[in-house]
Each structure stands twice: as C-alpha cells, then as structure tokens.
Amino acid sequence: MATDQKLQAEEARKCLQEQLKNIGDVEQRELKNEEGHAHLIYLKSMCDPILVNDNLINRFYELNSMELFERFIRSFPSSLEPKDKQELLRNMLRGCVAIFIRDRVLLLDAVLVNAGSVQPASTENVMQGPDDSFTENIEVNLNLIRHRYQTTDLKTEFMTVGRISQTRLIIMYDEMKVDHSVLKELKKRLSELKTDIIQSASEIERHTMHPKLRLFPTLMLTERPDRAVLNISQGKICVLMDSTGYVLVLPAIFNDFFTAMDDKIQLPLIGWFLKAIRYIALFITVMMPSLYVAFTSYNPEILKMQITLLIAGSRATVPYPSSFEVLFMLLAMEFLVEASVRLPKAVSQSATTVGGLILGTAATEAGLVSNVMVILVAAVAITNFVIPITMMSMGIRVTKYLFIVLSTFFGLVGIVLGIVSLIMYLTSLRSFGKPYLKMFAIEWRRKGDPQSG
Amino acid sequence: MVRNKYFYYLFLLNASINLINYVPRILIQDRFSGVLMSVLIAIPAGAILMYVFAKMLQRFPGEGLPEIFHSVFPVWISGLLLVLYGLGWYFSSAITLISFMDITSRYISPDVSPYIVLTGFLVVVGLSARLDSESLLYALEMVLYITMPLIAYMAWRVYSNPYFSWDSVRQIMTYAWNMPNYRTVAAATYIYTGYINMVVFNRIFRRFKVRYMFSIILVSIVSLFISLFGPIGILGANGAGEHVYPAFSTVDALRIRYFIIERMIYVFFVVYMILSLMNSIIHWHVGKELVLGGFKLEGEKPSLLPKKRKAEWWVLALFAVVIFVLATVINQYTLNDMAIVFLDVRFAGEILLVILLIYAAIRRGRRRRA
Description:
A: about 450 residues; 16 helices; 12 strands; transmembrane (chain B); Spore germination protein (chain B); Spore_GerAB (chain B); membrane (chain B)
C-alpha cells in the first residue's frame, strides 16, 4: 500500500486540532468498544445530526468490528479518502464528517441542507403557466430541471468558484444541441474567475463578461425552471449555483429579454402580438421624453399645428426649458419607484399614493410642469415595466437619460444620432461569441425551436 | 463569417444614399441633353463592373484588398494604391457628411450651429468606424430594415401624388436620343458603387458569390427612376434644376394628412440621416482599413493588433479633422464641384480597380499553376 499517498491518521488529527482551534461548533466524538476505537470530528452546524447518529454512531456499536465498520463506511458513494490535509479540511468545511479508524482517515458526506420548499415565482410571473421557481438549494434545482427534461443528453458538470466561499456550480446543457464553442468559452471564463466570495448569480455575470462597463445584460438570470428547460432544449447552457434562487442562462441575446414565458402559453398570434407590444413599449420608453424635448425646444413645426399649440398651451405657466421639466419629472418618478421597492409593504402603499398625488395633480396645478408632461412620465414609467426581465428594464431606464441629454444639445438630430449609436453599440456586443443584436437571430438556433425563449 | 445577403445590403445602402451625394442634381442638370441615354449606358456599365469585380473577388476568398495587392505588387506600388483608394473612399463620406450638415441647418435646425451638429456626426461616425466589420454589417441590416419600408412609402407617395406632373416626365423622354456624356454616366453608376465596400468586407464573407444580378439591375433602375423623375414630376421639368437638394425639395412638397407629423420632410430627414451616418461609418471603416493596409497593418493579425489599434485612432482623428476643416472652408458651389469631381474620379478609379483585380487574379492563377 502506498502510504505516502494516504494520510496518516495521527498526524492528520493533530493538524486538524491545530486548525480548528477556537471554532466553537466543532464536535469530536470518541467511539470505543472491545475491538478498538474510532474518532469522529465534524462541524456541528454543517452536518445532519440524524445522519451522523444513524449511520456512524449506532452502526459502530452494532457492527462491533472495525473491519466491518470501515467497509460499511466505504460502501457509501459519498465517502472518500482524502489525499492530503487541504482536501480533508476543505471537505470538512463543506459538511463532511472526518472518521479516524485505526490509521486511516475517511470522509463521509453528511451535509445538512436547509432549503425552503419550492415557492411560486415572484419576479417573472405568468398568467397561466407553471408556477414553480428555483430554490436556494442546488440539488433541488437540479431535480426541478431533470424532472422536466428527461434524457441522458442532459449533462451536468460540477465546479466550484470563489476562493473562500467555494460556491458550487453546475453547468447544464443538452449535449446534442449545445454549441461547443460557447461551452468551452464559458469554462475558460469560469476557471479564470478570481474572487474570494461569490454569492449571487449576477456576480458571475459581472466577473465573466467583457467589457466590464455595460448598459445591457448579456447573460440572463431566471428563476423559472420552465424557462431554463426551454433554453436548454434550444441549445443554451444553464449555470446553476448553490445558495441563489436564480439560474444563469447563456448566451443571451437582445430578443431573449423581451420574451416572457406567456408567449409560449398563449396562441402563436397572440404571442407575437405580446412581443410587438413589448418592442413598442421599448420605443416609447426610450424615445418619448427626448422627443418631447426636441419637439418643444427645437422643432415645434414637426408636429401638427393643433398638437403643437396644445403642448405650448399647457406649458404656458412652466417657467423653465422643457429639458429641465422632463428631468425633474423623470427623477421624481425614479425616486418614487426606488422608494417603493425598498420600503416595507405597509409604508410603500402610502408613499406611492402621496407621491402620485403630488406628481399628478399638485405639480400641474402649481404650474411647475405641464399636463402633457405628467401623461408622458406616466407612459414612460408604465412602458418601462412592460419589459419582462428586470435586468434589461434597468438598462433601458438608464438609456433614456442618454437620449434626453442628446436631444437637449442637438434636438431631433441628437435623437437620430442616439438611435444610430445605440444600434451600433448593441450590434457590437457579443454574448459568448454570439452577436447580441441581429435582425434575424434564428440562424444559430436552427437546431432547436425557432421561437425564441 | 457572414452570409451572402450582406453583399446586397451594401449595394442597397449605396443605391439609396445617392440622393444626398448630388447624383439627382447632376442628372437633372443634364435633363435637356443626354441624361436618358447616359442612364441607359450607366445601368449595363455599372452592372458589368459589379459582376466582373465580384467574379474576380471570388478568386480571393477571405482576403481583403490589402492582402491581395501586397501579394502581387511591390510594396510601394500597393501601398500607394491602397492609400489612394482609401482616401478616395473616405472622400465620398466627406461629401455625404458636409452636405448633410448643410441640409440640417437649412431644413431642420437653423438655430443650432452647423459645426456643433457636424461634431456630433463626426464623434458617432468615428467611434463606430472602429468596430469590427461583422458588427457593422449587422447594424447595417438593422438600419435597412427600419428605413426601407419608409423609403418605399415615400416613393409611393411621390408618384401617387395628384400634383405629380407626368407631362414633365414625358417631356424629358423626348430628349432620349441626345448624346450621353461622361459626367452623367459617372454620376448614374454611383447607384452600383456599394460593391466597392467588399474590398474590406470580403474578409468575413463565407464563400462570397453574387447572384440575382437581375434583381440588382431592377433595383438600380427603380432607384435611378426615383432620383431622376421624382423631382422632375413634382418640381416641373424646368423647376427641378433650380434646387440644390432636389430630393429634399420634392419631399417637402408632400403632406401626411392622417398622422401626428404633418410634413413628409421630417420622416425623410430622419431616414436619410440614419442612412448617411451608416454610409459614412462604413466608408470610414473601409477607408481606414485600406489606409492602414497601405502601411502593412492589415487584417486581425494578433502581433500587429496593438499597433493597429493605436494607428487607427490617428487615422480616424485625421479623417475627422479634415472633414471639419473642409466644412469651415468650402461653400455650396465648391461642395457641388467637389461632388462632381469625386463622382468622375470614382468611376475611372472603379474601372482601374477592376482591371487591377483581373491582373491580380491572373498573376495569382499563374503562380498557383507554376
């Protein structure tokens, strides 16, 4: 037997005791019978006490033979024999029990899982579809996906990231449909990840994507198993992560962020209609404020005479240029949105009511903003919420300010400049080598379902 | 790697941008002498040039003009040729941008300084021209799908207008047998000239092949018909010659009755501003690649990339400064003359380019056989 490969029990135990000094939740148990003795060391907070009692302690006294006990432990698929101290320590911190029998060290996985039950989705609601969402436990999530996608082509590769957090990841994909260049790229980027703590899926997004400063997400986060499954079936890759209820889907292109799961549930024509609605909403929420500035301050002659007079009439009492008016109102709206997200439920109701009343009625009656402006701000706010994926709607929220700045300085010309730059910017982005914005993005999805998801 | 359809987009972009680059004006100036005959000559001439060019380029899959020239000519000849072609191609965008600056201050925002507008143009064009060729083609596709329906709508509105004078069109038809002249032929072939962009974009095409020549010719006939007879029908056979931008004056005569925007000119302006910017971006990109290729900084070689990225800034800054200085110096008349000179030189240059390519293909073929 190659003794230099295996860890010597005595030496390891000393070393462990050294390392685990001042850690209060370490539990050590000395088991003794006629045959000999065994020693268990584990972190009480990480291990399942029932499992330890049933499988190790009770069994030790029942079996009454060191030989048999060791064989019994080795029969578990989750047991292993560590090669060095680092491996031993790492696995103990993960939730393994270290068992010292005779001169061997064995590890048995007894991790205690504290997972809530499967909850209904909260950020991506649908009307008439499945309602489950991912939990914070990676095994449950794996189960949720496997349950919906029953084929051996569904591959799962395990990985850990984060130097201290040692967060577990599972890369899932359908081997027959996945684009292998994307898979390779993903693994490369994940292995290059050098951060101490990874706690949420969006952190992976931030650390793996280039360029760092971006306005639009190039990875999708979803909390819906059905979306993950649909995407896997279209040849995309899902990255499951321990301790978050979100799954990364990649590569994600612009159009994916305008797709809700409803589109699949409804009849095809209605699905297209819903999608068209979302793109119209995108146009309105980005363009409306800047068009208002351009039309009132630079080119009032563009609109029909009656509309121009209407706007001018309602702006008659407003004492400052239209760009300030737009900025004030939009900022007020952003404050309101931001406040109602953070506040407790009970208070947020009254906050929105007060804010809405002040914005809606008092400001116009005082003559600080025009009536048309209030309608416009409301339209902008509502259309912004139409975009189904939160990350995208945040990006859009910022984009409209860039357009306002452009139209303040250049008028209509600035808006057109903005449109061209936006198209240029979006087409220059890549999500794992896939073009982000393209007129007909179906080409690379030819293998899967032509409808996007 | 992109598919063949992007070649047609490049063609379509140039075919539609002719309205800004003084092509209608030059055609209309010649309306009582040989314009029809010139157009009739220009259509097959341009189509043949395009076809031969595409056939020759197929012999060099995945190669741009710099790679082709450097492999068959001595360094100094190919360097000189590439820089000249690059600057010539860039010059086309100079005319587009300056005339669009002029149009903006004339029709849209007379109270904004034209130089501020031009600075905005140059910043957007300069930054976008640095992107990779593939992204530019995707953006081009996007832009064309946004603008083409609007152009079709406007063309339909021009020809369905009750005040459209078909008599004027018929009057011009009576001059069909007059002798053509070089200037008008050169201007009319501008419709086809989008294929020149392939000298750089060929690098990313997967097995480039040109097909559907018939529909290309059809599209060019339609666009020439629109840029020549649109203004003549609306502004009159005589009156059409009085305008600096006949296309803009024509569209300004249209009214949309049932929409929140009343005058067609604003739709037209937005559409053509997007197209002009897109066209300039692509021309700068091609010009930049050719000029850099002239200094042996071609393609995406990893060893040259940092140096190329640095040199790129200088070339693009130079492009921007030259246009800005030109815009402050020249006036309406010189701009018009510049456009005419450019169109004349361009046609000759295109013929020379095709001849050079044929020569290069023969050299390459002989070397392969030897």
